[in-house]
Amino acid sequence: MNEKMTYKDAGVDTKEGERAVSLMKEHVKKTFNENVLTGLGGFGGLFRLPVEGMKEPVLVSGTDGVGTKLKIAFMMDRHDTVGIDCVAMCVNDVLCQGATPLFFLDYIATGKVTAEKIAAIVKGIADGCAQGRSALIGGETAEMPGFYGEGEYDMAGFSVGVVDRDKIITGEHIAPGDVILGLPSSGIHSNGYSLVRKLVFEKAGLQVNDYREELGETVGEALLRPTRIYANACSAVLPCHEVKGIVHITGGGFYENVPRILPAGTAAQFAKGTWDIPPVFPFLQEIGSIEEKEMFSTFNMGIGMMMIASAEEAEGICSDLAAAGEKVCRIGEIVSSEGERVIIR
How far apart are CA 311 and CA 309, in angstroms? Predict the structure, then answer.
């Protein structure tokens, strides 16, 4: 006699998925604004495009994930912060074009859905959306038995913003003499964690609960700290100042990200000592005996976002950022160069 089987017998518990949706609803609804035209549970999220006053509105989109930083969340069994990282990696990229973030979508995949864990992840995403001034209008939780290790998951995010075409920031007008302003990072953010984990857990043999005097906290606390989202900083500056270029410092550090917005014949010259480097970076550098150039080629080194503007605009930008509660440092300038694109002295 054939045994009757169900979807649950194959490892997919739709009831638990429904319970996860029920638990996450309160977090998601907190991100809604007057432009959200649907609730949870539809086949697509509806969002009214706010384009009043724009001559030629252009949508700007970005997508990213959290990467192997998720391994730290698994080790600590803490899941309510990595969603902030997911939002940050997407929204910060959209901001670099001068866009105003509008809405966000997420994708979470796991071997087995646990409602409380999924709700914690979505809480982090909602917290990130609040910081990123975005409505969380849709998402997907995929239960995939046998595909992920026990207790593990992956996630990705998708951000959409809008900018008037003549306000798009491209970097094409950057010129020698322009000032580079740096906005501090919160730490490692969400890049370089394959190297970080190898250094900390394999080479140094540390555990997430180990307290380190040089960090002033446990290893896990330093490594899991969420990525900063710079929506408030950009909203304080972009409506009233001409910013020629914005750089989100992600994987590849200074050397890979900064040249992406530099015109031919120019370079970014940075002055060491003009900003504070969080203790986690010298900690990692010492563990791995890493050369300084490699550090700046891998990590943000304490600067999560850069704004490039004329010397005249820079003073006003700094003033407005300070008034908005943002810390900003003058970290360098644009110089003429036919060779190196990034110079750190």
Answer: 6
